[in-house]
Amino acid sequence: AQRVTQPEKLLSVFKGAPVELKCNYSYSGSPELFWYVQYSRQRLQLLLRHISRESIKGFTADLNKGETSFHLKKPFAQEEDSAMYYCALLHGSGNTGKLIFGQGTTLQVKP
Amino acid sequence: DADVTQTPRNRITKTGKRIMLECSQTKGHDRMYWYRQDPGLGLRLIYYSFDVKDINKGEISDGYSVSRQAQAKFSLSLESAIPNQTALYFCATSRDSINEQFFGPGTRLTVL
Questions:
Q1: In what helix (H) or strand (E) does residue A83 lie, and over which residues does it extend?
Q2: What CA–CA distance (Å, rounded) separates A38 from A47?
Q3: In chain A, which residues have their Cβ closer than 8 Å to the Cβ of B40?
Q4: pLDDT of chain B along its 112 residues, tens only?
Q5: Which of A32, A44, A86 sits opposite B98 (nearest CB)?
Q6: Cα separation, A22 vs A19, whole angstroms
Q7: Do B42 and A98 make contact, defined as CB atoms within 8 angstroms?
Q8: Which of A41, A48, A49, B23 could form a disulfide with B91 if both were Cys (CB 3.0 to 4.6 A apart)?
Q9: Distance from CA of A18 to the nearest CA of B (A)
Q10: DSSP A55
């Protein structure tokens, strides 16, 4: 079954420390993966997608098919990175897909 | 600015009552979605619609129904609300499957 797992409910780091938010997936096809973020009092919004291979706000995520992972990383955390982060997998083929979200990880960056 | 709006933003109701949550969008997207968010469970898809004539059940559709009145409007109904439907509900839209979903601000529903 298709599934997205984020094993950490809460990740707490100090400002300037490296951050890695874990995401593992289970999918039989070629996965399309996303990270969404929800800052306090803001809407859930797309942070990045693996097909774009981009870095947004210093965050990157590499798809590792061998480990079925799509971990989100940032070398130096900032206080403004504190938010809820969701990993999501596009389930379905062609143009009929829908997103399956993980359970979410709250990132807390302490001063 | 093109937007996704939800009404009401907060609602407290009693067990057994019928509730409708509304979603409107000015993005011109064909696809619309309803999710619920629960602590520790993330976002789960309730219903989704690829266009006005196409409505599909998501992973947790029991106890819910939807209506796609127009391209811009997608309503979620709880025919007889129960306490475990207390949650934060989000509407979202997208141009197609692979592209970004745009979320509304959410409706906090409490069923007593």
A1: strand A83-91
A2: 9
A3: 9, 103
A4: 779 999 999 999 999 999 999 999 999 999 999 999 998 889 999 999 998 899 999 999 999 999 999 999 999 999 999 999 999 999 999 988 777 899 999 999 999 9
A5: A32
A6: 10
A7: no
A8: B23
A9: 24
A10: -
